Amino acid sequence: MDVKKVATLVIAAIVLFYVITQPNQAGGAVQDILRWLRDGAEAIITFMKSIFA
After folding, report:
1. Which pLDDT value is given to residue 36?
2. CA gap 27, 48 in Å, rounded
3. Which SS3 state, helix, strand or coil, does residue 1 take?
4. Distance between start and end Cα atoms, the chain
5. 30: which DSSP letter?
6. Inter-axis angle of helices 23-52 and 3-21, to 10 degrees?
7. Is 2 helix (H, G, I), strand (E, B) or coil?
8. Tens digit of pLDDT at every position of the chain (53 positions)
9. Are 26 and 19 in contact (CB under 8 A)?
10. What is the largest CA-CA distance in the chain?
11. Is the entire prediction scored with pTM above 0.70?
12. How far apart, in whole angstroms, are the C-alpha atoms of residue 15 and residue 24?
């Protein structure tokens, strides 16, 4: 078996275990990641506006 495939399966199993055993914390982690991505996108937009303003 390919090492990359095994690593992907192991990571997926760990994430699934985390979601099943601690759904509230997993939901909070997803919200934090989405908030981080939104803040990053807003920062990039602000930067681009400042360049072309």
Report:
1. 98
2. 32
3. coil
4. 54
5. H
6. 110
7. coil
8. 799 999 999 999 999 999 999 999 999 999 999 999 999 999 999 999 999 98
9. yes
10. 54
11. no
12. 13
Q: What is the pLDDT of residue 53?
A: 81
Where helices occur in the chain by DSSP H, the ranges are 3-21, 23-52
Block residue for tokens 């934090």: 32
| Residue owning tokens 């990359």 | 4
- CA 33, distance to chain mean position in Å, is 5
**Amino acid in the structure at residue 39:** D
Report how far residue 29's alpha carbon sits from residue 18's, in angstroms, rounded to the nearest whole number: 11
CB 26 within 8 A of CB 18: yes
CB 7 within 8 A of CB 14: no
- CA gap 34, 7 in Å, rounded: 24
